[in-house]
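Section: protein folds

Sequence with per-residue tokens
===
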Amino acid sequence: MRTALTAALSCLLLAAPARTNNGHPAEREFVRLVSADSARRYVQELVACGPRQGGTSSNQRAAQYLQQRFHAWGLATKIISDPEKLAHEAQHWQLAYVFPEAGNFLRPWPYGFSPATAAREAEVTMATGSAAMRGKAVLTDKLVSRRQYEAYVTAGAVALLSDAPGRDGDYTEWAMIGELPSRRDNPIPVFAISRSDGNRLRALLSQGLTPRVSFALQTRIYHSRPQTVIATIAGAVPEKRFVYCAHGDSDSGGPGADDNASGVAAVMETARALQQLITVQKLPPPRHTIEFIIWGSEYFSTNAYLARRSNELERILGVINFDQTGTGTRQQAIYFEGNDIPWNESLLRTLDRIGGEFCGRPGFWQAYTTNPAQGGTDAYAFLPPQFRGTLKSPQRIPATTIFTAAWDESSQLEQTPGWDSSCWPAQTPLEIDHSRYYHSSGDIPEWTTDREPWRMAWAAQAGGLALLRLLW
């Protein structure tokens, strides 16, 4: 089946240039229609809904917003209720200095599944051992793991304060958010705090002072069903489909502008521009159906979709996923992931050509590359474990992710042989750019997507051009 799917995509590629190769009016018009300002506005409106975690009230508000948008543009749209899961909704929280001087923390944020906690005060300590931690708020510079959490609880801590990742110069005025075990009965809250606040507390402790803080947390933890939105452009052969998607939730539970309202905005803007061209008859319907999908919960909703379609996976021609398309730190670059997956060859070569054709043009990326699989986003629900995926079926589904940054630190990868980019800085390694605001309380539009909205437009343009060349 792997050979058959690869051959099918190859046939699509061979057929496409007669209609939509670079310079065809459909491509030029599509690129012109994609709007960075529109993408920026979508992110602002999505973030205003709340963190949008699967099954929460903000997820429901965002799903209604998306349905209305897609419907207004002329796409057939439906909201799917995924299987039930435990949802956590932090409604209000407070963390403040009491001694030696009253004041507020910089953008603190509770970990996911932190329990509701009545207002109280506690001394802060970094000491280890049950006697030193009992009744105290314990400061750590690590992301709190399940094992560490249980140890702190057993030692009698009443709260944890984490300024992870513990690097001076990073997360200075905002906090990296983590998550506790997904359950109702976690005993104590964890508050993510900024590195500046962590260093302030350490300085006080090193002076022989014992800082005192006050904290409170209102939360809801309940079972609910994530809401996934599917908008469709029907194809001439409707039983075959191409999935074009992004996770709609802020998987950290924070504001989630870059991760991943930016990816949602790229999907929305592609759908809007393509449907507009079809409506004004500048473009016929595609040969195969396109499903524009905004997953209610990262991985969870994607796996639910695959479970519903388990007997028809051969109908999925390919997947283009978007994650973190709204910021970057070192490069004005765009990335296309999964070039080490053999059955991604045709899909990635299409994106590679698009990357090279538009690189360096005014208004486009200044560098691009394909890169090996990294894992950690919804495209990998369509891929098998040997390529960091979770798909248990032997079906070989081409799947890639388009992004402009990943994780909280830049990383260097060994490039897959035969995939050197035609537009990458000479004599430099394959570096994956990162976001300074990854999984944090600082992932707000004002600090990410408002500053560089063109990145989302790049992602929509690259993905949409790939659809034009593959499906028209």
Notes: Residues 88-222 form a domain with the Glucose Oxidase; domain 1 fold (CATH 3.50.30.30). Confidence is low (pLDDT under 50) at residues 1-22. The longest strand covers residues 85-99. The chain has two domains: 2-84+225-471, 88-222.
